[in-house]
Write a structure and sequence with these properties.
Structural class: alpha+beta
Largest sheet: 6 strands, mixed
Oligomer: single chain
Strand order of the largest sheet: 1-9-8-10-7-11
Shape: globular
Helix content: 25-40%
Radius of gyration: 28 Å
Number of strands: 19
Length: 580
């Protein structure tokens, strides 16, 4: 080949640039990775407009707000700054709270938000309380961290979201001394009947693959995540659409027919569910021990003023007692109306949305390890859910924030010594058929308990050979973990009937009678109930009903011979009243 016929150097340069460009394009996602996000449910307004379809919004649903703004999923922003707390001016404590019925006892006890009434410490020293309305939880957290308020508010499930930031400075680590209330109907999930397989009887399972609108970093999110997981729906299987608050979520649901469900608060959940096309899937009237409101003091303030913290606990308990009278309720509604800028008739109606937790109920929440809906279990469940959502990092142990020293101190003092749990549902004995006919199924939780063949003994031991030796072991070593799981669900849904269904495999089909198999499965379901009551004696046995299903309903209809899946127990949560 002659020199004239060979490619010129410029040719190789150009060829090289082309090859590099092609390689760069091929590996563009490696070289220039797109911005990663672990935030589910991000969506733009344009996406929503395109998904709205041709149906017009329903203008007749009286939601609290008419306008709404969707926002992307986000972790809580960093705290803007921390500092020592502001010194008490005229011994006045600044106590943050939000627009919520549960704060009625302290509003009543304080005579409103102004620092006018004198409180006293156990030794008789006077102090005053100024109630500071900060409805936005992030703004409240920052005011607390900067020392502008001494006391913060939260639902306990929200607090783990704060801890990544608060734990950075020991001065602002929270000390939770008192539970104020359980949400008692104020939070709920509303679903469109058209989104359900059975429009007359929607369940949590119908949310799979759907769009759900809610306020992020709020009790709504914990409520929904908890319901999804218990109902066998992974959070990744739904699309979360976020608004700034629960009221906007209700307005968005009303206006946008592409949203299958919303999580919001009263009165919007009740206004929305009055529309025939919608259904109130579940509220905290049924999941009545799921969302707990608490107040917490800064660690440095608690160290410097333990007497004031105790005075607050005592005073709030006194406010709870005043709330039991009609005059107390009327006065509280009036004071709340002024503070919240809400008509008095509406604040009076709000009072039923929260159950004030008295001294005995606080002891149950903080100190009873066998309480399936206690502080520790609520705290750990919230951490688990939010860590799965990639929203928080390292967990903070519950006992670094829970402080029941004041509750212990009051134990032998009247009227606390005589206090009794007043938040219990009286379940009448009912058959399974009656419960299912009168109630409305919310969710089904599938748990696995391994039973030895032809046995319903959950604690049965067997001889196995390991490492050349015969040893005695439990047939199912995970019984206690399963019971804990079922108990926590039953505790959270404390106003619901719990149906325990036993199932067997069909390995003896054609050899054993169906009636004998049904009896075996029924005995297994009854064994679960017996062990639950034994392990958690505070449960009302009538809350649980049992049924043996035999092999009639395999777990996987496409593979009815999968015996491992079919040896199971299903837990159904049935609302006490059928809303149909």
């Amino acid at each position: 080949m002659s020199d004239s016929s060979r490619p010129k150097p410029l040719f190789f340069v150009v060829l090289g640039l082309i090859v590099v460009s092609l390689l760069g394009y091929g590996f563009r996602k490696v070289l220039f990775p797109p911005e990663k996000t672990d935030k589910p449910g991000q969506i733009t307004m344009d996406d929503l407009r395109q998904a709205n379809g041709t149906e017009a919004p329903d203008p007749n649903v009286p939601t609290t707000v008419k306008e709404y703004t969707f926002k992307p999923s986000e972790k809580l922003p960093p705290i803007k700054g921390t500092s020592a707390y502001q010194p008490l001016q005229e011994r006045t404590v600044k106590f943050a709270l939000n627009v919520w019925a549960g704060w009625a006892p302290i509003i009543l006890q304080n005579g409103g938000d102004q620092a006018a009434k004198t409180w006293t410490t156990p030794s008789g020293e006077p102090f005053k309380v100024e109630l500071v309305l900060i409805d936005n939880p992030v703004a409240m957290r920052d005011a607390y961290a900067s020392g502008n308020v001494h006391i913060g508010w939260a639902t306990l499930d929200m607090m783990p979201l704060f801890m990544d930031e608060l734990k950075k400075d020991p001065r602002i680590m929270p000390r939770v001394y008192q539970q104020v209330d359980f949400s008692n109907g104020g939070d709920g999930i509303v679903i469109r009947r058209s989104a359900a397989r059975d429009p007359k009887h929607p369940t949590i399972g119908d949310l799979r693959g759907k769009k759900i609108v809610l306020a992020q970093n709020s009790p709504s999110e914990y409520f929904l995540l908890n319901a999804l997981v218990n109902g066998g729906v992974q959070p990744a299987a739904v699309e979360f659409i976020y608004t700034s608050d629960a009221f906007q979520a209700a307005a968005a649901f009303s206006a946008d027919k592409s949203l299958a469900a919303c999580v919001s608060w009263a009165p919007d959940i009740y206004n929305l569910s009055e529309v025939p096309a919608n259904h109130l899937l579940v509220s905290t009237a049924t999941a009545n021990k799921l969302i707990a409101d608490v107040w917490f003091a800064r660690a440095d303030f608690a160290r410097d003023h333990p007497d004031i913290c105790e005075g607050l606990v005592r005073g709030i308990f006194q406010g709870m007692e005043l709330m039991k009278t009609e005059d107390g309720k009327k006065q509280a509604a009036l004071l709340m109306s002024k503070l919240y800028s809400i008509p008095e008739n509406e604040t009076a109606g709000m009072l039923a949305d929260a159950h004030s937790t008295n001294y005995a109920e606080n002891r149950e929440f903080f100190m009873n390890q066998n309480n399936p809906a206690n502080f520790e279990r609520t705290w750990n469940t919230a951490y688990m859910l939010y860590r799965k959502m990639n929203r928080i990092r390292q967990a903070v142990p519950f006992d670094q924030v829970a402080d029941f020293s004041i509750l212990q101190k009051l134990a032998d003092e009247e009227p606390y010594k005589s206090s009794r749990n007043e938040y219990q549902v009286n379940f009448a004995p009912k058959s399974v058929s009656t419960v299912k006919a009168e109630g409305s199924e919310i969710l089904t939780k599938i748990v696995t308990v391994l039973f030895a063949p032809n046995s319903w003994d959950m604690r049965k031991k067997v001889i196995v050979r390991e490492n050349g030796k015969e040893i005695e072991k439990f047939y199912d070593p995970n019984v206690d973990a399963v019971l804990e799981e079922v108990a926590q669900l039953a505790g959270q849904y404390g106003a619901a009937n719990i149906v325990i269904e036993g199932h067997t495999d069909a390995s003896m089909r054609g050899q054993a009678s169906e009636q004998a198999v049904k009896e075996l499965s029924g005995n297994r379901a009854a064994a679960v109930k017996t062990e639950l009551i034994k392990k958690f004696p505070n449960f009302n046995p009538n809350q649980f009903v049992v049924e043996g299903m035999g092999w009639a309903r395999p777990a996987d209809r496409d593979d009815p011979n999968n015996h491992a899946k079919n040896r199971r127990v299903e837990i159904k949560v049935i609302a006490l009243e059928n809303p149909e």
